[in-house]
Design brief:
The chain is of the alpha/beta class. The protein is built from nine helices and nine strands. The strands form three sheets. Strands 3-2-1-7 form a four-stranded parallel beta sheet. Strands 4-5-6 form a three-stranded antiparallel beta sheet, with no helix packed on it.
Length: 305
């Protein structure tokens, strides 16, 4: 009979899943539900060259084995890239889109029916012993043996403190698509709630257009500063000790911490983690120190990830 798969979400995660499933024996059909073009999700659908990936080319790949597939894709198109590079996100969007079209052709040649529904999924309900009914916003009803949820950043989480202002023209629940930020009046005063990667994206775009910006977050913590994020050539974590951990151990937290800190120290030839990161109290001072540590090659913790 074959499997009938529905993938909800056609961004990078959905395409990566589709790429793996399209070559699996026994597939009868694969349906992707997304109102946008497949491959161009929220994170990688941006066209702004200022916004970079937060992982290096080496791990930003749909193929988990061997050399990075993204590295080969970009090099084959003339991009001078290295496995450590953080490339503009729009390049990954193009990569996802082209890989989807390639895998789709291969699946269809193998007899798999592939469909893209330009809509949103409303409900997923069990039907019988081994099936599901998926109802779409446009009224279409799909039946499936398997359903995978890959919605990504489709629905931002809105803090309670501003939830009462939803719908106000001066409130944006997400910086994506960034083209919306570019339409703000000149010299606007902008409050950015949050200080992690999405907030940094917003500040980069707003700052380039010379708006006046204040960032506010409960923690004041900024993303870790790093110069690469890739697979180490030599594994740092003691896999035997990790696999021997008991999830029921009362000291599990301490045991995990010890293994991780040992891996970090090994990556730094014995340098402890406290010497690889800033301990400054203020976020501005901490950012400056972390930048200096990373650019001078002392952020060894990144090679244990």
């Amino acid at each position: 009979m074959g499997r009938h798969v529905v993938i909800i979400g056609g961004g990078a995660t959905g395409v990566s899943l589709f790429s793996r499933l399209s070559g699996v024996t026994g597939m009868a059909s694969i349906s992707i539900v997304d109102p946008n073009p497949v491959g161009l999700g929220t994170a990688f659908g941006t066209t702004d060259p200022l916004l970079l990936c937060n992982t290096s080319v080496d791990v930003t790949s749909m193929d988990p084995d061997g050399e990075s597939d993204l590295l080969g894709y970009l090099a084959g198109r003339g991009w001078p890239v290295h496995r450590d590079d953080f490339v503009p996100r729009h390049l990954v969007g193009q990569y996802c889109r082209e890989r989807y079209l390639q895998r789709r052709r291969e699946a269809e040649q193998a007899g798999v029916l592939v469909r893209h529904h330009l809509s949103r999924a409303r409900t997923v309900s069990p039907v019988g012993a081994e099936g599901y009914a998926v109802e779409l916003a446009d009224g279409t009803k799909l039946t499936a043996t398997d359903v995978f949820l890959c919605p990504g950043l489709d629905r931002p989480v809105v803090p309670e403190v501003v939830a009462g202002h939803l719908g106000h023209p001066a409130l944006a629940t997400s910086p994506y698509p960034v083209e919306e930020l570019r339409r703000l009046p000149v010299n606007s005063r902008v409050l950015v709630l949050g200080s992690k990667l999405t907030a940094v994206d917003a500040v980069l775009v707003l700052g380039r257009d010379r708006h006046r910006i204040v960032m506010a977050s409960e923690s004041g913590a900024l993303p870790a500063v790093r110069t690469r994020l890739r697979r180490p050539r030599t594994p740092r974590l003691d896999s035997a000790a990790w696999n021997a951990l008991s999830p029921h151990s009362p000291s599990l937290d301490r045991e995990v911490t010890r293994l991780v800190l040992t891996a970090v120290a090994q990556a730094g030839n014995g340098t402890a983690l406290r010497s690889q990161t800033s301990t400054a109290a203020g976020p501005v001072e901490r950012l400056a120190e972390d930048l200096e540590i990373a650019t001078s090659g002392r952020a060894h913790w990144q090679d244990a990830i």
